[in-house]
Amino acid sequence: MTLRHVLPLPFAMLSLAMLAGCQQEDSDTAKTETAETAEATTEQGDPRIRVAMLQPPRSGLNPLTDDAFKLSRWSTAETLIRLDADGSPQPFLATEWERLDPRTWRFAIRDDVIFHDGTPLTAKRVVASLTAATNAAPKPRILDGVDMVIEADGDDAVIVRTAESDPLVPNRLSSPQLAILAEQAYRDNGTVNPIEAGTGPFVLEEINGTQSAHLDRFEDYWGERAELAGIDADYVPDGTARGAALRTGEADVVEAVPVSQVALIDPELIHEVPMPRTNTLYLNTESGPLADPALRATAREAVDREAIVRTVYEGRADVANGLLGPALQWADGLRSPVEGRPEPKDPNGVAITLGTFTDRAELPEVAVLLEQQLEAAGFDVQQEVRQYAHIEADMLAGEFDAFILSRATMLDSGDPVAYMVSDFACEGSFNIAQLCDPEVEAALEKAADLAPGEARREAIIDAEAAILATDAAVPMLHERVIQGESTRVEGAVRDPRERELINEHTRLIDDGDA
Where is the secretion signal located (predicted)? Predict the structure, then answer.
């Protein structure tokens, strides 16, 4: 049954109210009204939590796309494997696994798990879900360059075979894009509908396009029963509106509070999460003026990272020394100066297009500052800024000479090789720079073949150096995402990988219990 829930005040209205200029006394009134409304949203004594999400879904919450990370952040869709804080694989829907040979793995499937539609989790169902991912077009990023075949091994295990030796198969199977869903989720037209199809502590009951989604507690969850009665998620791409939602109490948890809003918010509600996320300037290596390596070198030299961190991010970010930031504590200790870069040359006023998107509030501000820096170096810069959903296709098609992107470097596997292959390999599905360089290819292949450990880390840094030598990417800063939480919230997950947000342990407390 689909349940419908009405939020007390639409975020669009809230945004207008904020832009009109809310006073502190209005905020205090709103907090009181919100507390009263929260009491009305309880089910059997347990409250529902209201979440303001950064971006609307791009593909109707299709789990084979980046929308999968919303499903995992709401704890509705689950994978065979989960990662611990160090990025090491841990049991989830698979209870154990072993590597039978360099190309073959066996995963035992958890007993007594049922999907939200009441059907049982079986080895056959796991095979079907994973096979759908391998056949998707485009494939999930985690499967870039990976040929994988899955088959049942009896009723309680699956065999995963790869065409090449792949030491990261368990890590790959932790990607939210490889979540296991019920049979009814997969439609004949190739779409995937996650409503009542997961195995997590919350069941997705309603999708309202790019406006909102609603989830209820799943009473037959195989693990611990959720503390909350449900989740009401609104998509609020406007950063000012997200900040206002936190300040006035209209949302209990807020994704990615813009730096510009932090000074307006009670510090008790603000939590900085160091992220493996790099704000990078991608340069088109295939077409346009920046196909010239010397002009890419000029663009790289023009970027003043310290000024961007100091002004746009108000010091709440780390200047980038490479693609991989301080969240990977081993990276800096292995780095050496990048060699083999060409000398810059005078652009002589050549025109370039600089693109970015509005969904992350800081990026348009970065674009303004970068335009000034690049023009000071001799370029004639034209900006193009849109919502991400309206610019992604052109970005991936190489329609821009330069593009600013905030990119998670360990989002999928807990290992940066997958991100590097996706963004910088010849066949990478997220290759904004249109890069195809033999030295980069060789370095990525070497890193991908090594087992997790020190040798793999050294190879990753060598691959990073090969990429940076091309000036296809100019890493500018590493973000610290700011997560907003009401003082009534306990147990919201502050996850550097952005895979978790609300889980079975998250709860709302009464003011008297605080």
Answer: 1-20
